[in-house]
Inverse folding.
């Protein structure tokens, strides 16, 4: 046996012995999780027991990242613990998670990222199907897109929060990439126009300035629409869109990841039937409407400024009878200052719906 | 504090303490993996060092499943260890894995399942691009589809093994599902014909007999083609295909998972530039050609029967000059009996190419 083989043999024995210890601890953890389920069932009716606690999971992950000393990177360890919690939870209670299908979409990726591989994920054909399954209790949780870096907020999802009684239990973020698409066998040199949603044109400006400085930039309603325009086109148009659109319309990906900020993210919401307790670092989402009079939005936002609560997103939806606003802000509805703002809002608004407080995305 | 809260508090403290131990062990394991890399680099040139050892990984996973006493299910623990090895390997050497894109396809799922989330996965536009990237060393490994339950073997992939010098380093299996697809807002009651690849028609026979007994069944070249036929159709046709096709052609999924055997699986190969040592439970793939004379296949298969080596797949490809066979069988090329068969084959065949010996899929 060579020196190398000897040294490797020693290290591999160490690894095997570590693996055995990890293995034992994983099963110990799983049996603790089973006991947690038993205790809950002893004191509560089976239908009242909440097995999945997003706030506790977020706390565990944050603690893992805080105490991590390496050599494993913080995010990798946290991801491993997410999977550990996922398999333990599946033992307590198999989770059924509905998502906007089909399988293989980014929404499924988001569901997997949040619930781990041990949850049963069920693809549904529309966001309203997801809301309906969650409201009826057929699915424990649902995952729906809410923000998309190229199309902005997903308005359809917003509108459904008015129609269904589900609460937001969490958020998930995924990185997104934008590509330059050409029709099949197209030549980049012939491109005279680049079409895309205006946000994507803006996000890829530096790349376009360098590589296609003479091409006209044309904003269209969505990147999907931009990709569709290439079908049957004469080869002088390029589109900016993601992998899905390239596949859908059988386009060539002439250049990958042309966005200036490579950390573009898209956001998904976890919906459920449960009020999530504070995890310490939370967000709250509300729908609030007012008569359409001058200064309405200012009146609604002023309490946030006055109480120094950071807004993370404000969306305006025009409606027949006035305006509706979707507002995300930092903090939990059980925090004193948030409670105060919500009470003030209830007075000045026509309608106020608390969609949920939930842990800010950890990973 | 209620009794329930007290009992839960105790269990949660136990879980937190177990988590701390697991966390510490994970980092110890990672640092052992780093030392393995250092030892290899001390004795070998950087370009000669092989960091990823599929046979060792398969052995670790099999051992985990064998010694597992629960309560975690064998497969769940093995999956956790796959991820643990993935993050440790990423520390030794960040892996670049090319796959047949785009992102979100089953091939990417296969790549993730095999290499874990810590590998960098690179979507490419064709199987030959994947082979080229691997042969040139731009990617460490490639993942390509080889068998697809609805279309059988992927002939294109087979043919590329003749053109490129890459070896098979592993296999991955994924479950697949088939759906009944209708054009948008179509009505199942109006369906007079069901189109699909003949294998899919066969795989869904029981469901079709029960739910669409009067519909004519028409075999077409692929399920993708079947789905395409629905575009612009009059609503009397239904297709059988998977999620991807439904999305690609914007069809309604009228019924999910209609296959009679719900454990249909599709198979992918891992290609690389490395000879994988025996893991104990292995498969070997070869390409072998003979002059097109009567009894050619019998002559090629006879040594396997005589040496009691199980064949897992035989595919025939007609070529200008004769016939080529793709043969998968159990065993490793370093096994005495396999070596013997390969020597015999070399004599009776015109050309024999060992594509690789690799661990049988563990999960």
């Amino acid at each position: 046996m060579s020196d190398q083989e000897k040294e490797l043999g020693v290290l591999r024995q160490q690894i095997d012995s570590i693996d055995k210890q990890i293995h034992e601890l994983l099963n110990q953890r799983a049996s603790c999780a089973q006991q947690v389920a038993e205790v809950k069932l002893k004191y509560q009716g089976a239908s009242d027991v909440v097995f999945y606690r997003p706030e506790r999971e977020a706390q565990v992950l944050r603690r893992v990242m805080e105490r991590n000393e390496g050599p494993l990177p913080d995010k990798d360890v946290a991801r491993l613990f997410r999977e550990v919690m996922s398999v333990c939870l599946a033992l307590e209670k198999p989770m059924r998670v509905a998502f906007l299908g089909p399988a293989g979409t980014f929404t499924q990726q988001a569901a997997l990222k949040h619930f781990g591989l041990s949850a049963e994920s069920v693809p549904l054909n529309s966001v309203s199907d997801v809301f309906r399954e969650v409201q009826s209790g057929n699915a424990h949780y649902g995952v729906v897109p809410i923000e998309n870096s190229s199309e902005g907020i997903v308005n359809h999802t917003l509108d459904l929060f008015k129609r269904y009684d589900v609460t937001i239990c969490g958020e998930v973020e995924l990185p997104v990439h934008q590509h330059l698409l050409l029709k099949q066998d197209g030549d980049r040199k012939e491109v005279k126009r680049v079409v895309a949603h205006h946000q994507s044109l803006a996000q890829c400006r530096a790349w376009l300035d360098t590589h296609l400085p003479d091409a006209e930039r044309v904003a269209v309603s969505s990147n999907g629409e931009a990709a569709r325009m290439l079908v049957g086109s004469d080869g002088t148009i390029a589109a900016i869109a993601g992998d899905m659109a390239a596949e859908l319309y059988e386009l060539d990906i002439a250049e990958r990841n042309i966005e200036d900020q490579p950390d573009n993210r898209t956001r998904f919401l976890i919906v459920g039937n449960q009020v999530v307790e504070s995890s310490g670092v939370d967000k709250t989402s509300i729908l609030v409407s007012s008569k359409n009079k001058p200064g309405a939005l200012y009146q609604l936002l002023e309490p946030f400024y006055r109480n120094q609560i950071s807004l993370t997103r404000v969306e305006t939806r025009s409606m027949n009878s006035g305006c509706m606003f979707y507002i995300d802000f930092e903090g939990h509805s059980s925090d004193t200052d948030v409670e105060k703002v919500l009470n003030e809002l209830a007075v000045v608004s026509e309608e106020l719906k608390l969609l949920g407080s939930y842990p800010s995305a950890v990973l």
DSSP finds twelve helices and 15 strands in chain B. The two ends of chain B are 45 Å apart (CA to CA). Chain B has a mean pLDDT of 87.
